[in-house]
Amino acid sequence: MSEFLMPSLGADMESAVLMQWKVKVGDKVTKGQVIAEIETSKGVIEIEVFEDGIIEKILVEPETECSVGTPLAIIRSDEENIPVSSATAAQAQTEEAPLEKAKPDRSKDTTQPQRVKASPAARKKARELGLDLADLAQTSDGEIHLSRIESAAETEFKTPSADKMRQAIASAMSLANAEIPHYYLSASINMSPALSWLEEINKNVTIKARILPAAMIIRAVVLALEKVPELNGYWQAGHHHVCKEIHPGIAIALRKAGVITPALLGAKDMNLSRTMQALDDLIMRARAGKLRGAELTQQSITITNLGDLGVENVYGVIYPPQVALIGLGKIIDTPWAQENNVTVQKVMKATLAGDHRATDGRTGALFLDKFNRILQNPKELL
Amino acid sequence: MNKEQIKTAIIEQIRIIAPDLEYDDIPSDENLQNALEIDSFDFLHLLNALYEQLGVQVPEADYGEVDTLNRMAAYFAERIKGT
C-alpha cells in the first residue's frame, strides 16, 4: 500500500490543481501510466504512476488545489510487487534537495489544500480566461460565481498564469545565479556542410518527412554529449551525478505565455528522423498545454536556440540542479578563412554555460570540439 | 482557385496551425515568419497543410519565393494554373 503524492514538477512548483482522474477505484495501473491531469502555472500536465498496482482509494476530488506532496490516492501494490513509490519519492526529494534548502520552509502549510470556494462554472470560465481564483477571492465574499468571473474578465483582464510563470522563472534563476559558478565558452561552427547535406536529404522526401536544421542540431548535441557525458547530469548535495539517459530540456517559446523547457525524453535512442518527429510533437504539445510530468522533471541539460530572433550568442543561465546549458545562435553568412582562401559560409555560434563545481572549462571545450566535428561530418547524424 | 481564394486558404491554415496568434490582420507584404513570430516548425506545418489542400509542394530551394503572404499566394496560383 502506498500513497500517490502530488509530484513536484520542478523546484518552482508549490501547488497544482488536480483537474481530472484518468482512473477510478479498483483500476489496475502499470508503472508509467498516466493516471491524472493537473494544472500548473505551466499548463495542464499529465502525471504518471511510478509503480504497478491497483487504485485502492481516491483521496482528492477533481478541481482541488493541492500542495506538492499532498496524498492524492492510495495504491495497493500487487502481491509480488514491493512498493517502489517511497524509494522513487525519496530519490526525487534528494534531487530537489539543494533547491529546497535555499527556499523558505513551507512544510508547515503543505498539508492544507488551499481551495478557493467557487462554483464549477465559475472555475471553468476562470480557467478559460486565465484568471486566478485566488486573486479574485481576495476581493470577493464567500463563493465565487460565474457573474463575478465575467465582470472580472471585463475589468481586470490579464494573464496571471504568465505572471506565475514569470515568478517561477525568477526564483529558479536567482538561485542559479547565486549558487552556480558559471563558466562560458563559445565556438564558431561552419554549418554549410551539414546544411547542404540536410538539403540533399530533404530533396528526396515529401514535405511531411522533411527534417529541420533545429532537429539536426539537437541530434548533434546529443551525439556530442554521448562522448562528453559529464555535462549531462546534476549537481546534488555537493556531488556531481552524471545521467545515463540523455533528456535534453528544449526551450520552447509559448508566444504570449513565456518559455517552457520540457525534456525530449530518451533522445539518445532516436535517429535523426525520429528526433525531428519527437521534437515536433513536443513543441505542439507544449503549446497546447499537453505535456507530461516526466517531461517537466527529467531534464538532464538544457538547449536554448534563439537563432530565430537573430541572436548570435546565447549566454544562458543554468537551470539547477543541471550542470550545463547549450546556447545556439542564428546561422549567419560569414566570411570564413580556410587554408589560404576566404569564402562565405553559414556560421553558427554555439555557447556552453557550465557549472564550475561539476566540470572544468576543458570538459566544455571537449564538448564544443566534438559537436563541431560531428557537424563537419554530418553522416554521423543519421 | 484564384490568388485571392488561395490567400484566404493560407490565412485559414495559419489560424489552424497557430491558434494562439492574436493577429486580426495578417500583413500581406511582410516576411510571414518575422511578422507572426512563427518558427520553422510552424512554417513547415503550413506548407504541409497547403500541399494537402492544394497539391503543390514547395521545395526548400523555393522558400525565398514564399516568404510573404502575397508572394506565397502568387507562387501557388502560378503552379495550380499549370496543372
Describe, in plain words, how this protein is organized in 3D.
The complex is a heterodimer of chains A (382) and B (83). In chain A, 34% of the residues lie in helices and 27% in strands. With 382 residues, chain A is an alpha+beta fold. Chain A has 3 domains: 2-109, RNA polymerase II/Efflux pump adaptor protein, barrel-sandwich hybrid domain (OB fold (Dihydrolipoamide Acetyltransferase, E2P), Beta Barrel); 120-164, no CATH class; 182-381, Chloramphenicol Acetyltransferase (2-Layer Sandwich), CATH 3.30.559. Chain A has a 5-stranded mixed sheet. In chain A, strands 9-18-17-16-12 form a 5-stranded mixed sheet, covered by helices on one side. In chain A, strand 17 (324-338) and strand 18 form a beta hairpin. The radius of gyration of chain A is 23 Å and the shape is elongated. Chain B is mainly α. Chain B has one domain: Non-ribosomal Peptide Synthetase Peptidyl Carrier Protein, Chain A (Orthogonal Bundle). In chain B, 59% of the residues lie in helices and 0% in strands. Chain B has helices at 3-17, 32-36, 40-54, 69-82. In chain B, helix 1 packs across helix 3 (40-54). The N and C termini of chain B lie close together (12 Å).
Contiguous helical run count of chain B: 4
Sheet bearing the most strands of chain B, described? Answer: none
Strand content of chain B: under 5%
Integer count of domains of chain A: 3
Specify the CATH homologous superfamily of chain B: ACP-like
**Highest CATH level, the class of chain B:** Mainly Alpha
Rough outline of chain A:
elongated
> What is the percent of helical residues of chain B?
55-70%
Cα shape of chain B: globular
Report the radius of gyration of chain B as a whole number of Å: 12 Å
Largest sheet of chain A: 5 strands, mixed
Determine the oligomeric state from the structure.
heterodimer
CATH fold type of chain B: Non-ribosomal Peptide Synthetase Peptidyl Carrier Protein, Chain A
Helical content of chain A (DSSP H or I, runs of 4+): 25-40%
Query: Which structural class best describes the helix and strand composition of chain A?
Result: alpha+beta
Number of strands of chain B: 0
How much of the polypeptide of chain A forms β-strand, as a percent range? 25-35%
CATH architecture term of the largest domain in chain A: 2-Layer Sandwich
State the CATH topology of the largest domain in chain A: Chloramphenicol Acetyltransferase
Biased composition (Low complexity) (chain A): 85-96
GO molecular function, one term (chain A): acyltransferase activity
Region (Disordered) (chain A): 84-123
Enzyme class (chain A): transferase
